[in-house]
Amino acid sequence: MPTEAAPTGSASGALLLCRAAPSAVAAVAPLLREPMQLTRAGDGWSVLVPEGGPWRDGDEPIDRVVTGWAGALAVGAPWPVLALWWDADHAGFTLATGFRRPVGFVWLSRGVPVGEDEAMRTFAARVGLDPVLDLQALDRLTAPDTTADARARLRGLLAVLTRVGVSMPPELVPGLPADRLREAVAVLPDSRRVEWPGLREAAGERGAVTHSRPGAWMPWTGGPAAHVLALAQIAAGVPLLVRGLRRPGGRWGWVTAGALLLAHGTAGLAYRVTHPRD
Description:
Layout: E1 13-18, H1 22-28, E2 36-40, E3 46-50, H2 53-57, H3 62-76, E4 81-86, E5 90-96, E6 103-108, H4 117-127, H5 133-141, H6 150-161, H7 178-186, E7 192-194, H8 199-204, H9 206-209, H10 224-246, H11 252-274
Antiparallel strand pairs: 1-3, 1-4, 2-3, 2-7, 4-5, 5-6
Helix pairs in contact: 3-11, 4-5, 5-6, 10-11
């Protein structure tokens, strides 16, 4: 969950784990309008590596930025998104699943846990981990441990997630600065860059994505699923955008998520009107 972590520069970084194939993630991730690198992260998982501009160039804490991204992606597509983040003073994660309240946990830089144990139980249930053996491993991450700092806790979390198919490329190590992560992922054989191409260009590629199950939810399909999702996105985007605009500071994540949902939902409705199905 978002905290009051102070903005930092080169010491910060983030990873967005999506429970979907890279082709499905590539169809939705450009709507964040943030340049990212995308690659496979195991069986049925992909990882997005953001360049990190929003939290380095502005005054928004990194955890709020990536929580907004994760929430927007999870609502805009039928799969969960796990955001891992770290800066000089904190590290943590947020799991976003559809319209559910995000769940997460935070550690101070020395590895001191500051989250609630119940959050780990909720996390385990939503990800599909074993409620006994895997939960025991997660519980150890919430217990005091003088030998594990915050970034080691994130690596421990990824070790538990191997039970549900996560297999991160060894080059992507939680704790590395965003610049080094981007350089590391860019040279991987199956890595690709994703960025906002403009709605018209994205619509021109609709034939490549409508054959996949997640593709049926994209606005340019004009199908019933896309129409329902568009309405839901508009309904969710308005309160998020208002909440972000009303906050005196630290509002990038909420504004980004709200604006993304409104734009995506409006695009879906507009496309159905201007491109009626036969």
